[in-house]
Design a protein that fits this description.
Layout lengths: L6 H8 L13 H5 L6 H28 L1 H4 L17 H22 L1 H19 L7 H21 L5 H25 L14 H24 L9 H21 L6 H7 L1 H19 L2
Helix pairs in contact: 3-5, 3-6, 3-7, 5-6, 6-7, 7-8, 8-9, 9-10, 10-12
Length: 291
């Protein structure tokens, strides 16, 4: 039997708080630009994070409403609040409207450009819910675009000019993560009935996508790192390449084991990724702030 609880608690769970970590990508551009120590920039970035939390919550809720019947036949997704009957469809749709209106209103209040970006993102995710997730290749591209949009949004909200190589790293890195996710879903077989697009993929093809996007991500990061002028005796940017590549290698190993179906679990639970991430973060912040 699925766990029971109050409707309010179920509604919060339906917004998938564990997925909120993805929205931290809005801090990437301001951090890379060395602007997070500015109070106004930090405030705008935090508000952008909240806007994405609200709009993405609306997306998850709408997806759960649309997939409620299919979710009830899934061994894991049947415990989702809407599928389990903890949250009614009517309440779920009401929450969709409230979260979407709140998120878009906040985005437009920050910047009309951010508002348009978030609106376009929402339109694409709605199309994904009802159509694109059933189309092979396009389903990977659309999900990956969500990561890239988050990374770009931080720059749009704060007026920071985004490097071409920064955009390349975020775009191909996103494709790398989503290709690994599809690989894990295909290996587990649990989503085969709910994702018709999986039937069009093979493990060999998905391994090819993982390998190719990993290679392009690493190359793009190297070019992004080397485009920065050296500002201290320590080559911070160059050194940051090492943990970045090790992180890609570690994630690729976990994907090859079939553990990539839930990327957020890898980043939350894997100690190897934690260690590599801390080392990379120290070197990255050194690259930006040490003079």
């Amino acid at each position: 039997m699925p766990p029971r609880g109050g409707a309010a608690r179920g509604l919060l769970r339906a917004t998938r708080p564990r997925q909120w970590v993805k929205n931290l990508l809005v801090f990437a551009a301001p951090a890379a630009g060395g602007a997070l120590d500015d109070g106004r920039t930090l405030l705008l970035t935090c508000l952008t994070f909240v806007a994405f939390v609200l709009v993405s919550a609306a997306t998850y809720l709408l997806n759960d409403v649309a997939d409620a019947e299919a979710d009830r036949r899934h061994p894991v997704k049947r415990d989702r609040p809407i599928a389990a009957g903890i949250v009614s469809v009517r309440l779920g749709l009401t929450a969709v409207v409230v979260c979407l209106a709140g998120g878009l209103a906040l985005a437009y209040a920050i910047s009309w450009r951010l508002g348009l970006l978030l609106t376009a993102y929402k339109l694409v995710t709605v199309a994904y819910t009802f159509r694109f997730k059933h189309t092979p290749t396009l389903d990977i591209v659309v999900v990956a675009s969500g990561f890239a949009v988050r990374a770009a949004a931080g720059g749009v909200a704060t007026g920071i000019v985004l490097s071409d190589w920064f955009l390349a790293v975020t775009s191909f890195g996103s494709l790398f993560l989503v290709a690994g996710k599809r690989h894990g879903e295909l290996v587990s077989g649990a989503d085969a009935g709910m994702r018709p697009a999986l039937a069009h993929y093979t493990l060999e093809h998905l391994r090819f996508l993982v390998t190719t996007t990993a290679a392009v991500t690493i190359m793009s990061y190297c070019l992004w790192a080397f485009e920065h002028p050296r500002t201290s005796e320590i080559p911070w940017w160059g050194l940051s390449i090492v943990p970045f590549v090790v992180g890609i290698m570690r994630y690729g190993l976990l994907v090859d084991r079939g553990e990539g179906a839930t990327p957020e679990d890898i980043f939350i639970r894997d100690r190897g990724m934690h260690l590599v991430g801390v080392v990379w973060l120290v070197l990255f912040l050194g690259s930006v702030y040490v003079r």
